[in-house]
Amino acid sequence: RVRPEAAALVETLRLRWGVRVGMLTGDNRAVALAVAREVGIHEQDVHSELLPADKAAAIRGWQEEKGLGGQRTLVAMVGD
């Protein structure tokens, strides 16, 4: 079940703060996409059917990406 304030938070993060919001989940693709649509996460930022090691690898990959000015990307994680 999705918390009622989740969609507003995702919108605030994206529009006010310029944060790219993604989802890493072990859930199947259909469930992940349904939740993503409900909270406003773009389909291309949804990564489903992942094992814990896959999630950790994805986070490490995001951390290695370069942001503005060649700085490493700041990555934050929120769990349910």
Structural overview:
The protein contains three helices and two strands. By secondary structure, the protein is mostly helical. Strand 1 (23-24), helix 2 (29-39) and strand 2 (46-47) form a beta-alpha-beta unit. A two-stranded parallel sheet has the order 1-2. It is globular, with a radius of gyration of 13 Å.
Tell me briefly what this model is:
Strand 1 (23-24), helix 2 and strand 2 form a beta-alpha-beta unit. The chain has three helices and two strands, in the order αβαβα.
What are the SSEs and their pairings?
Elements: H1 6-17, E1 23-24, H2 29-39, E2 46-47, H3 52-64
Parallel strand pairs: 1-2
- Strand proportion, as a percent range, falls in 5-15%
Structural class: mainly alpha
Order of helices and strands: HEHEH
- In one word, what is the shape? globular
Through-space gap between termini: 10 Å
Major β-sheet profile: 2 strands, parallel
Extended strand count? 2
Helical percent range?
Answer: 40-55%
Number of helices: 3
Radius of gyration: 13 Å
Identify the strand order in the major beta sheet. Answer: 1-2
List keywords for this structure.
80 residues; mainly alpha; two-stranded parallel sheet; 5% strand
